[in-house]
Queue: 3 jobs
Job 1
Amino acid sequence: MNAPDRMKQDVRCANALRFLAVDAVEKAKSGHPGAPMGMAEMAEVLWRRHLRHNPANPGWVDRDRFVLSNGHGSMLLYALLHLTGYALPLAQLQQFRQLHALTPGHPEVDVTPGVETTTGPLGQGLANAVGMALAEQLLAASYNRDGHAVVDHYTYVFLGDGCLMEGISHEVCSLAGTLGLGKLICLYDDNGISIDGDVAGWFADDTPARFRAYGWQVIDNIDGHDATAIDQAIADAKADTARPTLICCKTVIGKGAPTKAGGHDVHGAPLGADEIAAMRDTLGWTAAPFEVPPDVAGAWDARTRGRQLETEWNTRFAHYRATYPDLAADLMRRMQGELPESLESDVMALLADNSPLRQKIATRKASQLTLETLVGELPELLGGSADLSGSNLTNVKASVWVNHAENVNKAGKKAGNYVSYGVREFGMAAIMNGVALHGGFIPYGGTFMTFSDYSRNAIRMAALMRKRVIHVLTHDSIGLGEDGPTPQPIEHAATLRLIPNNRVWRPCDGVETAVAWLAALRHDSGPTCLLLSRQGLTPFARSAQQIVAIRRGGYVLADTPAIPEVVLIATGSEVEIAAAAARALGEGGVAARVVSMPCVEVFYEQDAAYRDSVLPPGVPRLSIEAGVTWFWRPVVGESGVALGLDRFGESAPADALYRHFGLTAEHVAAAALGLARVQS
Amino acid sequence: MNAPDRMKQDVRCANALRFLAVDAVEKAKSGHPGAPMGMAEMAEVLWRRHLRHNPANPGWVDRDRFVLSNGHGSMLLYALLHLTGYALPLAQLQQFRQLHALTPGHPEVDVTPGVETTTGPLGQGLANAVGMALAEQLLAASYNRDGHAVVDHYTYVFLGDGCLMEGISHEVCSLAGTLGLGKLICLYDDNGISIDGDVAGWFADDTPARFRAYGWQVIDNIDGHDATAIDQAIADAKADTARPTLICCKTVIGKGAPTKAGGHDVHGAPLGADEIAAMRDTLGWTAAPFEVPPDVAGAWDARTRGRQLETEWNTRFAHYRATYPDLAADLMRRMQGELPESLESDVMALLADNSPLRQKIATRKASQLTLETLVGELPELLGGSADLSGSNLTNVKASVWVNHAENVNKAGKKAGNYVSYGVREFGMAAIMNGVALHGGFIPYGGTFMTFSDYSRNAIRMAALMRKRVIHVLTHDSIGLGEDGPTPQPIEHAATLRLIPNNRVWRPCDGVETAVAWLAALRHDSGPTCLLLSRQGLTPFARSAQQIVAIRRGGYVLADTPAIPEVVLIATGSEVEIAAAAARALGEGGVAARVVSMPCVEVFYEQDAAYRDSVLPPGVPRLSIEAGVTWFWRPVVGESGVALGLDRFGESAPADALYRHFGLTAEHVAAAALGLARVQS
C-alpha cells in the first residue's frame, strides 16, 4: 500500500473507533463519547503499530499491558478489543451498559476479555499501571538471563486531566520516576476540558515541567490527532528504558462531532441523532451503526500478528525452560498464582511449642516473625510499607529493598522483593493492585490502620476485582497510645469488614497471627486486611483442634466445664481482657466462655451448626472490641452487650486509655455478670 | 541590643525550643524530637519576627494562621505557644502526651489554645492551610473596602517530606497556584529523612520545579539553620501576594543532638539521657529541663506586641464598623458561626404545597432547589464540587465561581462563593475543613458518594475537630445505573454513619431534602453527609407534624389505621419501594407502617419513648436500603429482615438493577408478609 492509501486507511481505522463509540453510546442512551473520539488517533497508532498482544490469548504472560485510566472512555477500549479480534462480538457492543453484557459502563477486568484492570475511579488506573510496570521490572530482574528476555513487555496508559488532578497521580508518578520504570509509557489526552468546563480555572499546572520534576522523559506538544507524531513519540518513549515517559497529546474532546467537538457537553452524554448524522457526512462515513467496513475490519485485525508474537515468545520461553527449568517452572507457578505446596506445613511449623510466636509479643511483631519464614519460602511475596517499615514490621531479613541503590542488577534495573513506597498510602494500595493484576506476585504493604482511610478506595477496587492483595494495618486501636486520636482507629475495623469480598483478620496473639497470614495468602478472591497491635499481647495455649478452628474465623478459645452462662466474644488485643474477665467470673461462680473471633466474615460463612456450637443460642453474649459497637450488635443480639468505643480516642499511654474508656476485665466481668443474672 | 548580642539571643531562643521539645519527649518517654530540633530556627524567625498574633486572644479574627502540617512535631508548637505567652503553662508541657493534658501527641484544635487545626495525618494540615488562605482571600474580596483592610492576614505552614509525598499535597498546591493564594507561605523542612531512612530511594522529586509548575513562587536552597536567610525568604514571600510561596529550607533532623542528628533514629523516639546531657554541653545550655532562662523567656514573650497588634486592628475595625455597619455586623456574625434568624422560616417557606420540591425530582435536584434559596440568604455558604457541578447540582444561580477569570476584584483577587475544586475529592474535603476552621464560611462540596472513599480521612478529621462541613454526595446507590459498580456505593452509607460525630442524611424526597439541609446547617459540631439520588423520587404528602418529625431522624411516614403488623423502615430512594409494598400489603389485609429514617444517628439520639412510638416493640420490622444489610440488623432486630445489597453492583439501567437485585415492592411485600405471619 502506498503512503497516501495507508494514511487514508489509518484515518478510517481511527474513525471506526469513533463511530463504534458514538453509536454504542447513542443506543445505550448513556455513556461518554467525548474521550473515545478525542483519543481515536492515539489508540489507532498505539494499538495498530506498537502494542504487542494476542487477541486469542488475553492471558499471554508477556503481553504488553494497556490501561485506560480514564475509564469512562470504555467504549474506546471495547471498540479496540472488538476490532483487533478479542472474543467481544459486535452484539456485545450493541449491548453496551446493559445487564450481563460484556461491555459495562466502565472497563472491568475478568468481565471483558483483554481488559487488564477495572478503571473509573480517576487516577487509579495509572497507579495500577505503575504496579504492572514495577512487576515487570522486578520479574525481569529475577528471571531474565543473558539472551533470555522472557519477561520483556511495556505497560501503556491512556489518561486524562482528571487522572492528573488526582493526588494519587502525584504519589505513583513520583515513585515511578524514582524507581526508573522505563517501560511505562503514558499518553495524556490533554483536551483542556473537564466536567465543570475549561480546566484553566482549576488546573493550570505546567504538566510537562511537573513530570520532569519526577525524573520522567516528557514528550510534549504532540498533536494528538497527528498519527505520525504520535507514532514517533511512542518510538522515542520505548527507546528510553531508564525513565518512564509521558507523551502529552493535545486533543479535541469529541473530535469529529461537527458542532459539539471541543465542548464539555460531549463528555458524558449521547451526541443525538442529528449530530451523529452530520458527523457521518463530515467524515464521509457511509457505514451503518455497528457496521465495520471490510477494509477497516481487515486493517484492524490483529489476530495473525498476535499469534505470531506469542508463538515467537513461546519458542523463546521453550529455550529458556530447557536451560533454566527451575526458573521457568517457578515463573509459571507464580504467574498462575499457585502457592507452593509446602506453605501449610511451613506455617504450622512456626507454631511449635517453643516458637517465639508463643511469647508475649505485639501481633505486628508476630507478623514479622511469620514473614521471616514466608518471605524466604515465597519469592512472589512483594513487601512494602508507606514509609513505616520499622513500625509496621513488614521488612524481614530476606527483604531486598527495591529502593536501595545497591539492589540494581547489571542491566541497571532495580531488583528486590521489598518496596519503600514513601508516604503514599493510596498510591501503595493501588500499585499493589496493579502488581497483583500483572501476576507473578502477592503484594503486601503496611501502614497505620487509620490510614487505610487514605487507601480505602484502592482496597475496595481490589475487592471489586477480587485480587489477592494483603494490607498490613498496624497500630490497630487506642492501644497505640500517646500518638492520640488522629492515628487511633475507632470505626475502621467495622467499616473495612463492610466492604464486600474484603477479609479482615484481627488476631489476638502470635499463633492467630500466623494463621491469619496463611488465610490471607489463601484468600485469592479478594484483599485481606491484617489488623495488628502495636503493643505486646498475652499468648494463649491451644489444642491442635483449636489451632485448626482459627481458620473458621471464630472459635472457642477458653471454655468452662459447665454449660456457659455467658459468652464473651473478642478480637485482637481485647481477647486477653475477655479471658481475664472470664477467669474472674469463674472465680465468682459464673461459667463464662471466651470466643476469639479474628475474622467475623469467615465465621459467618460457616454453617449454622458450627456457629451455634461456638455461640450457643440462648446463652447471653457480650462482645468487646476497642472500636464502634454498632457493628457488634448483630453478633450479641438484642439482649447482649457490645463493649467498645463510640467516640474518638485520646492521647495517653495505652494502659491509661483502656482504663479511661472502661475497656478492662473488671468492667467486662461486671457487665457479663449483669447479663448472666438477667438471663437466669 | 547590638547585632552579635541579638544573634546570640536568637540562637538561645531557638535552642529553648529544642530543649523544651527534647525534655518533654524524654519525660513522656514517647514523641518526636527530630522535627522540632530541625525546625527550631525556622520557628524562631517566623514566630518572633513575622507572625502577627495575640497570645491573649487566640480567637482574634485577623490573626495570622500557623499550621504545623508535620503534626508529629507537636512539641515545637507547644513550646512556641508556651514561650510566646498563650495559656499553656510549663506544667502542661511536662504532661506532654498524658491523659487530659493540653499537650496531646499531635496538635488538636480546641484542645490547646493557639492550635489552629488538628494535624498528624500527613498532607492534610497543608490542605487546611490552603482552605484558610482561600477563606481569607474570599472574605477580603467581600468585606474589605478602600482604606479598610479588615481582613488581611497570612497563613503560614511548616511541612515535611511526608506532606509532600502525599497525593493531597499535589491536589491542594495545584489548586492554590491556580487560584493565586498569595498570602499562603509554606516552609518546607527539607531534612532528607523519613521513617524508612534517606528519602532519596523513594522521593527524588525536584520539589522546587514541581511547585514552579504549579505557579508558585519558590525560594529554594535556604539554609534552614540560618536565621538571616530564613528571615529574608519570609520577607520575599510576603512581598509576592499574587502567588503562594514555598520556601525550601535544608535542615538537619535532630539538629543539636551530638550523635543522633541527621539520622532517622531521632525522628520518633526520645533521645535518651546521655544524648541530652551531651547536647546541653554542646549547645552550652545550662538550664534544667523545663527551665526557661529569664532572658530567653523575655525575648520570646509576644504578649505586649500581640495586644498592640490586636488593638490596632480593633481601631481599624471600629472605623470600618462606623462606615460600613452592616458589613461589619455581617462579618462578625459569620466569624462567630451564627446563622441568620430567618433560616428556619426560609426553609419552611420552600415547602409550600405548590413547591417544586413537591414534584417527582431527584434529591440532588431538590438539594439544588433548596440551595437556590440558601445561597441567596447565607453569604457564608461556600459551595463547590470536585469537578461534578452539573452532576452534583451544587451550583445555583447565585453561585459566583471563584475560578472564573471575570470574578476577580479590583485588587486582582479572586472573589466568589463557589469553587470548582477540580478532580480532587480529598483535597476539596480537607480544604473545606480549613475554610471552616478559618471561620466566616460554611463550606459545602459535592462529589459522587463512592468517592467519599477518597476524602474519607478528611471527613473523619472534620468529625474529630467537630467542624461544620457539608458533603453533598450524589449518585447514592445502584440507582445511578449504567456507570456500574465502580461508582455505585454499597457500603458507604453504613460506613459513613460509623464515623463518630458525623451525620448522614439520606432523604427520600424534596421535602426531606430541604429539612436535611436545615439539619446540616444547624449541626455545628461535626460534618454532615447528604446522600442524594441521581434518579427522580416520588414525593410524599406529609402533615405539618410529620414535617417537624423529619428532624428527629426517623418518623412514621405512612401508617395504617389498624395496629401495625409489620413496620417497613427505609431511607432515600427505597422509601417509595417500602410505601408501595405497604400499600400492597394493606390491600392484602396486612397492616404495614412505613417509617422513613433519613438520619439513623439522630433517630437513635431520640428518647426511648419517641423511638418506641415509631418502632413499636414487638412489631416485626423490615428494613430496605440499597446497601450492606449488616448495618440494619440492630434496627430490625434478630427476628427482623434487612433487605439490601451485600455485593457490588452492576452496569445497567437503574430499574433493571433494582429488579435484578430484588429491591422491589413485590419482594419487600413478600418478605414482610412472611414476617407478619410468623409473628401472628
Job 2
Amino acid sequence: MPATRLDVALLAYTPEPLALVYAAFRQCYHAGFVADMWPRLLAGEISREKQAEFVAGVISSGHVSPIEHVSFTFAVEGVSRALTHQLVRHRIASYSQQSQRYVDASSFDYVLPPAIARIPEAKARYEHFMAQVADAYRDLKDILETNGRGTKAKEDARFVLPQAAETRIVVTMNCRALFNFFEHRCCARAQWEIRALADKMLALCRMTLPEVFTTAGAKCERLGHCPEGAKFTCGKYPPAKS
Amino acid sequence: MPATRLDVALLAYTPEPLALVYAAFRQCYHAGFVADMWPRLLAGEISREKQAEFVAGVISSGHVSPIEHVSFTFAVEGVSRALTHQLVRHRIASYSQQSQRYVDASSFDYVLPPAIARIPEAKARYEHFMAQVADAYRDLKDILETNGRGTKAKEDARFVLPQAAETRIVVTMNCRALFNFFEHRCCARAQWEIRALADKMLALCRMTLPEVFTTAGAKCERLGHCPEGAKFTCGKYPPAKS
Amino acid sequence: MPATRLDVALLAYTPEPLALVYAAFRQCYHAGFVADMWPRLLAGEISREKQAEFVAGVISSGHVSPIEHVSFTFAVEGVSRALTHQLVRHRIASYSQQSQRYVDASSFDYVLPPAIARIPEAKARYEHFMAQVADAYRDLKDILETNGRGTKAKEDARFVLPQAAETRIVVTMNCRALFNFFEHRCCARAQWEIRALADKMLALCRMTLPEVFTTAGAKCERLGHCPEGAKFTCGKYPPAKS
Amino acid sequence: MPATRLDVALLAYTPEPLALVYAAFRQCYHAGFVADMWPRLLAGEISREKQAEFVAGVISSGHVSPIEHVSFTFAVEGVSRALTHQLVRHRIASYSQQSQRYVDASSFDYVLPPAIARIPEAKARYEHFMAQVADAYRDLKDILETNGRGTKAKEDARFVLPQAAETRIVVTMNCRALFNFFEHRCCARAQWEIRALADKMLALCRMTLPEVFTTAGAKCERLGHCPEGAKFTCGKYPPAKS
C-alpha cells in the first residue's frame, strides 16, 4: 500500500501522422483526390519539411480541424481518482478506466501530494490515515461478504476509498482535443497532479509529432501573454491588458 | 457531518417542449416554415394529443434527433463523488460541480450505501471511519496552512476525502441524451446510487413532458425483452434469444 | 420561384437564462445547494446587475462552461443548402432540416448572392439559369414517376437542385457553442451568407441575454486585435504581432 | 465533365487495433496496468482468438465504449454534395472537405443516380442539364471576375452548382461511431448513395478488423428482426412485433 508515482505510456497513435494531417489539409484546397497523392506522400516525394511548413501555415491562419484526424492513445497509472474525475470532464475523448466495482482495493496504492510529502508531520499524518482507510475497506468488505452481499461487497466498500486512491485509465484524444487539454492543464494555475500528467502527455506528443505539437502547451506559450489576468497570472508572461 | 440523502430539483427546461419537438419534426417534412406555424402552436390550434401522436409516430420509426432541441437542467445534491465520476462520463451533457479545491470540507456530509445502512455492524464501522476522515482532513489542512500553503491547503487535504463525500452538481442534458442516460442507468444492473438518481430524473421528465418520456427508461421497458443476456438479466423481462 | 431572403426567428430559449448561468457558476464555488438559492434568485433578491457582474468576472477569468446550461433554438429560412452544409459542420448543436427527399421542390426559391444581384448582367444570367433548373427538376421528376419510381422520384430529381436552393432548418446551440459559432462566422473573412445568419443570431442573443453575449462576436472584438494575421485581416483591428 | 463513380480509400487506422481494444477492455476489470501487458500482447503471447473472444463477450454484454480507442480514416471521392451534407450530420467524426470556395469547378464532375442512368430519356435530360450548369458557372465566374470580384468569383458562382456536383472528403470515425453510422446507413431504407458509401466503408473495416466489425451493419443484422416497423421494412428480416 505505498505511495505511487505517475506513469504514462503511449500505446498507439495514428500512423504517418504528419502525412495524414498534410493530406487532410490539402484535400480542402486541392482539385484532385488525396488518395492519389497518398502513396507519393508515404514514399517521401514531398519532404517532411515542406509538409510541416504547409501545416504550420494553415494552423496559424486559424484552420485547425484537419489535425483531428490523428489520435493518440495513452495508458496512465499512478494517478488519483481526483485526477481522473477532472480528466473525464474533457468530453471530446474516449476513456476506459479501472473499475472500483470490479477490482479489489484491499491493498490500494495512493497518490501523495508533493506539498504533503515535503512536510514530515503532514506526510506521517497522511500515511497513518491511508492505513486507516485500508482497514476500513477490508473490514467493511468482510462484514458485507459475511452478510451475503457477495461480489457486490466491493461496490459498497469502495465508498471509503479516498480521492487519493490510485486508478488506471486508457485515454484517447485527437490532436485538436489534445491542444485544448494542454491549453488548460499545462497552465501554472492548473492543479499540480493533472498538470504533471499533461506535461508528460505533451512531451510524448512532441516526441512523436513535433511538427504539429510545437505550438501546443499552456495558452500563454502561444499568445506570448497571460490571459488569466493580473490577479491570477503566474508571472511567466505579462498579463493581457484589459 | 451526517449521512445525506439524494435531492434532485428541476431548475429549468426549454419552454413549450412538446410544441418545440413537434415543430422541429414538422420542419423536416413540411414545405413551409415552422416559424409561421409557431404562434398557432402556442395558441393551441393543434391539440396536444395530435402533437403527441405525431411525435410518437416519428420517434417509433427511428427518427429521434428532433427531441434534442429540448433540454432539462437539474440541480443534484446528496450524491457521492463516486456517483458524479460515473455521471460525467456521459459526454453529451453540461456540468457545473462543486469544487473540492475551493469549498472547505471540514464538516463534509457523506452518502451511506443502503446495504451498509441495513447491517448495524457495517453502519457503525462506516460512521466511525467517516469521523476519522474528518479528523484527517482538518489535521492536514491545519498543518498545510501552518506551513504556508494558504488557500491551496484545501486542494491538498481533499485527497483524503472518501468517494462517499457528498457533492453537488448542476446537470443539463437534452432529451435524446436523457433517453440514453435512462437506458443505461435505470437498468437493474446499474449501480444503486446512480440508478436512484436516474429514477428521480426520469420521474421529473415524465411529469414535465409525458408525451416524449413515456417510452424512456431501461432498455427492456421499450424492447419488451432484456438485452443483458441470460447471465446478467434481473428477470423482469425475458432475455433476448441469441 | 423568386429569390428569397434570410429570416431568423428565436423559437425558444432556456427560461431565466441569467439566473441559471449565475446559479451554475455559484454551485462550483459555494458550500450550499443552488436549488435552495434558486427561489430567491427568481424572486429578484440578488439583483440582475450583481449576477451579471459575477458572471462577467468568472467568464473573463477563463471559466466558461456554466454558460452551456442555457440553449437557444432558432428557426431559419431563406438560406441556401451551401449555407446549411457549412452550418451543420458545427457539431455541438442540434439540427432539424427540411428534407429534399420528402418535400417537393418543383417551385423552389433560391438565394441570390449580393455580388450577383449588384451586376445586372450577372443577375439576368443567374435568374435564367434558375428557370432552367426548375425545368430540369420537373422534367426528371415526371420521367421518373412515369417510369414507376413513385415517391422516390423527388429523391433522385433533387440532384439537379443548386447549392442556392432555399432550405429551412431548426437549430439549437448552447451559449458556449454560440460563442464559438460567432467567433468564426461573424468574422469579416467568413462567407457572406453564413455571416449574415450569424449576425442575426447574435442580435437575437444580445437582445435576450445581453449580460452574457456582450463579449460575443468575431474573435477580434474580444481580443482587441486580429488573429487572422497581416495577410488576411480585414483591417478593423490591428493584426497580432508574431 | 463526365459522371463520376464512388471511390473509398482507407488512408489510415489505429495500429494493432484488436490488441488496443482488448487492452482497453482489460484495463476496466484488471488489477494491473495494461501498459505492462502491452508488449506481451504485441508479441502475440495472447492469441488473436482469445482476444477476439473476450472482446466479443464484453461487447455483447452492452459494454462498447472501449472500441472508441480505434479510429479509421477514409478518403472519399465520387460522391455528391447531397451525400456529404448527410454525412457531416454524423457529429462524432472529423471531416476535411474540398472547398467550393477555393477550388475551381468549371469542369466539375457529377454523380449520376442509378435510377436516372437506367432510363435513357432521364439520362439524356440529366446530362443536358449538367452541361447547362457548367455554362452558367463559367459565365457567372467570368462576369464576376470582369466586374472585379477576383478570387471571390468562385465563391458566388458555386451557388449554381447542383447537389450532384462531385466532392471529395477525408473522414475519420472511431469504431463506435462507425457502428452507429452503419446501423443507420447500411439499412435498405437509407438513401442509395450514402448506403453505397457505408457498404464500402464497412467492407474495408471488416477486412481490417474482422473481430470487431463482424456484428456491424444495419440494425436488423444484429437484432434478427427489422426495427423499422411493418410499414417501412424491406422484408429481409421480419418486423418487430409491437
Job 3
Amino acid sequence: MKSYNVAVVGVTGMVGQKMLQVLAELEFPVNNLYPMASKRSAGKEIVFNGKPYVVQELCDEAFDQEIDIALFSAGGDTSARFSPVAASKGVIVIDNSSAFRMDPSVPLVVPEVNPEDLDWHKNIIANPNCSTIQAVVALKPLYDAFGINRIVYSTYQAVSGSGVKGYSDLENGIKGEENTFYPHPIAYNCLPHIDSFLDNGYTKEEMKMVNETQKILHDDSLRITATTVRVPVFYSHSESINVETKKAFELDAVRHLFTQAPGIILQDDPTNDLYPLARVAENTDEVYVGRVRRDFSVDNGLNLWVVADNIRKGAASNAVQIAFELIKRGLI
Amino acid sequence: MKSYNVAVVGVTGMVGQKMLQVLAELEFPVNNLYPMASKRSAGKEIVFNGKPYVVQELCDEAFDQEIDIALFSAGGDTSARFSPVAASKGVIVIDNSSAFRMDPSVPLVVPEVNPEDLDWHKNIIANPNCSTIQAVVALKPLYDAFGINRIVYSTYQAVSGSGVKGYSDLENGIKGEENTFYPHPIAYNCLPHIDSFLDNGYTKEEMKMVNETQKILHDDSLRITATTVRVPVFYSHSESINVETKKAFELDAVRHLFTQAPGIILQDDPTNDLYPLARVAENTDEVYVGRVRRDFSVDNGLNLWVVADNIRKGAASNAVQIAFELIKRGLI
C-alpha cells in the first residue's frame, strides 16, 4: 500500500495529540511525519508510533518539504494564514478550524455524510465543528429517507471542546479553585455560552450548527435553531435533537435506519438503561443514537439523544477519516 | 398577625429540611411546628428557628393534633396513603409528590402562575414537578401576551432532584467511587434518564413536564415535548426552552414582560457574560430567564434559557409560597 507524508499542525494541542493517536490507531499509512507547532513549542519532542520526533516551527517554508497531507488544528488565525500557503504548494490541507468552513470553494466534509464533496476540493478541506459532525451523522439517514423540515438543537458539550484550558478549568473547579478560562465556574454548572456572542443573540457555536448543517446536507432551506451549552463533562458532547421530517415515518423504520447507517451505534433500550452516554462514547469514533421517540406535539416529530467523543469523531478522527476517504477516492 | 400550626412530613429529607429553612427565612407565621417522618427517623431531633423539635412518627393519629397546614415531601406512596387522611381531618395538605398532581379534583399550583386554582381546593393542593415550576413561571407572561402553540423542552437537571442519594452519587463519583443510586456514573456524564421509562419511550419526568404544563396553564391544546437530562450539577435545574407563540412578538417586548413578571429575574446581557447560571440561582427563590433570542426557523419562534433552584423554587419554596397565598386569599 502506498504511504503518505503527513504534517500535523498544532501537534502539541489537545486535538493535535489526538490526531497522532488516531493516525496510529487507525493505521493510516504514514511515511514521514512532520509535527509542527508555533515557535513556542518548536524543538519539543513528541512520540508517534513509538518513535520520537522533533516539533518543527510552523512557517511558510515548512511546506516546501515533501508533504502530501497537512492536518491543521492550530486555531482559525493560524489556519487562515498558513493553509493557503500549504495548499498553493500542493499540500492537501484538512483544516479543523472554522476559518474555511463556510467558504463556498472549500468542501466541508463528514465522510459518512457527504464524501462526494471531496471530489471538488482545491487542496483545502474543512473539518466541521464538533457539535455539527455528530448531529449530521445522525440526521443524514433521516434526511435521505424522510426529508427534514426543521431541527431544534440543545447541546451538552464537554470542556475538552475548549482544549486544555477548558479541561483545566473543570479539573481546578472541582478542587475548589477559580476558573481562568471560562467567564464563570464550570464545575457543577451549565454555561449557555460557547464561543463568542453575535448581534442576533446567538453564539458563534450556535450559528455554526445552523450554517454547517445546511452546508453539509446541501440544503439551505433546512430550518434550524440551536442552544449550545457547556457542561461539566470532560469528553464527549451530548445533544438533544428535535426533528420534523417531511414525510411520515414509523419508529421501527427509523431505528432500522440507524442500525444500517455508517458510523452510528444505536443504543435504544431504555427499559434496560441503555441510551447513549458521554462516558461510554469517550475515546471511540462512533456516533451513538438513542432515546428515539415520537414528538407528539407536531406532525412527523422525532426526538433523539446523540452522543460522540468531541475530540475524536468531532475533530481528530473525522480529519483522519477524510484523509482515508481521499485515498479511497483516488484523490491523493 | 395570625399564626398557623404547620406539619412538615418527610422533614428529615432534603426537601423537608429545605422547607424548614424556607419557612424560617420567609418568616412564615408558624405557631406550632409538627415535624414528621417515617418510623426510622422518628425520635430524631431537628432544629427550627433555633429551637429543637423531636420528629414524630407519621401515622393517621398524628393528624388528630391541631394542625392547619401539612407540607408533605415524603414520596408518592406516603402522600397517597396519608394526605387523604390528613385532608379528611381538616388539614390543608400541600403535597410535593406526584401522587395527586394530575387528579382533576386537586389544584396544581405555582403562585405566580395560577393562584386562583387554590380557590377550589378540597384540602389537598399539589406542588408541581421541579422542572415544570420554573418553566411555567417563565412561560406564563408569554402565554398571556402572545399565546403559545408549542414548546420543546430540553433540561439540564441537578442531582439534588433525586434527593440525598443522587447528591451522594455525584459527590462519590467525583472521588472516583461507584454510583449506588443512578444506573450509570453521573460524574462527568449526562444521563438522559430521570424517573422511570414509559411505554411511549418518554420518561415519567418528561411526561410530567408535558402534562403539568398543560394543567397549570389550563390549556390541553398546548403542544409540548420534552427531553429531561440529569447533569453533574448539585443544585438548580437549567432548561433550554423553545417556544412558538400564536401571535407575533418583538424581542424587546418579551424582555420587558420578563422584567415585570412576578418571580422572574431577567439576566440577558450576553456580551457582558450575563445569562442565568445554576450556581447563581442556588439558594434563591427566583426563576432566572435569559438567552432571549428569536428562533428564525419557525414563525413566532423564541429560545429561552431558564434556571432556578430545584429544591427551593422547584419544591420547598413553591410549597411555602402556596401556604402564603392561602393566607392572602383568606382560604385558611
